Structures are given as structure tokens and as C-alpha cells.
Amino acid sequence: MSVLKARLPWLLLLLLASGCFFVPKSWAGNATSNLSVTATVPPSVNVDTTPVNNIPYDASTGSDVSSNITLTASQGTNLTILIGQGQNPGSGSSDSNPVRRMSDGQGNFLDYELTKDASFNNDWGNTEPTGVTLAGTGSQQNVPFHLRISPGQNAKVGYYIDTLLVTTLY
């Protein structure tokens, strides 16, 4: 025990002395500032259409088909979808009141309507009032359209086609 008592003061002195080497650094002062971080999410829209192919037409009953325009628009993007008159507009056709026709490429036509509603009351046109307005969700959205080939048309046998331009305003 006497050896421990004799060395105790030296051990304490050694511990105190070694503590001098671990003194935290002192600073003269400090200054602060806020760092601002910003981001901009621009409106964006991607549109996808699927062809409506090989609609069987019977002059006694006509044909009704429904499909979708698929789009993804950034959340909060307000947009209007317009559909043009097509490549073969009929007499009196306009962007607000389209008269759409498919052609067989030989001067024969098959009239049809493209509407926003399944009751075929609201033509889908190429002006803001006749387009479809919606808000983007950031997720894929399906926007339905309805196509009717009216009965009673005296169409020649063949393959008929039309191409419509789909435009989004945002």
C-alpha cells in the first residue's frame, strides 16, 4: 500500500498535465448567415395516343367506339386538350365545329364524330371552348373520347383512315 500512496501524487500530477494537451480551442467569435435553396418545377405534359384501328362499319347500325388519350402532366399544370379537324375535313368544317371524315384515298369518305361524352352531344374540337380542360396530377391520366360512325352512309368497300392532331395547351 505504501508504494501506491507514494506514486499517487505522481499519477495525479501526470493526469493533470496530460489534460493540458486536450484543451478545446477557443474562438474569438462567430458569424451566421442563412443559406437559401430553391428549385423550379416547370409545367410539363407528355401525351400518348393509341390508334383506333379496324372499326367494323355496318351501314344499318353504325359503329360506336371509345378509347383514351393518355397523358402525364406535372402536378398543378392546368391544360386544355384540343383535337384537330383531321386530314379530310368535310364541307363547313371549322376548328370549333369539325366535320370529320375518313378517306379511302380514292375520293370516297366515311363521316364520323369524335366527342367528349358517351352520349355524343359534345364534339371535341380544336379551340379552347371545345377542348377538354383538366389539371395535371403528376401521374398518368386517361382522358376518354368517343367515336361514332353514323349509320346510313353509302360507303364503298375499302380501308378508310384519318389522322387527327392532338394538341395540349398549358
From TrEMBL:
Q: Which residues form a coiled coil?
A: none
UniProtKB keywords: Signal
| Record bears the keyword Signal | yes
Endpoints of the signal sequence: 1-28
Spell out the PROSITE patterns in the cross-references. PROKAR_LIPOPROTEIN
Instruction: Please state every residue range assigned to the domain named Spore coat protein U/FanG.
Output: 32-167
Keyword flag Signal: yes
Give a Pfam family name: SCPU
Its domain of life reads Bacteria
InterPro entries found in the cross-reference section: Spore_coat_component (IPR053167), Spore_coat_U/FanG (IPR007893)
Q: What is this protein called?
A: Spore coat U domain-containing protein
The lineage, from the top, is: Bacteria, Bacillati, Cyanobacteriota, Cyanophyceae, Synechococcales
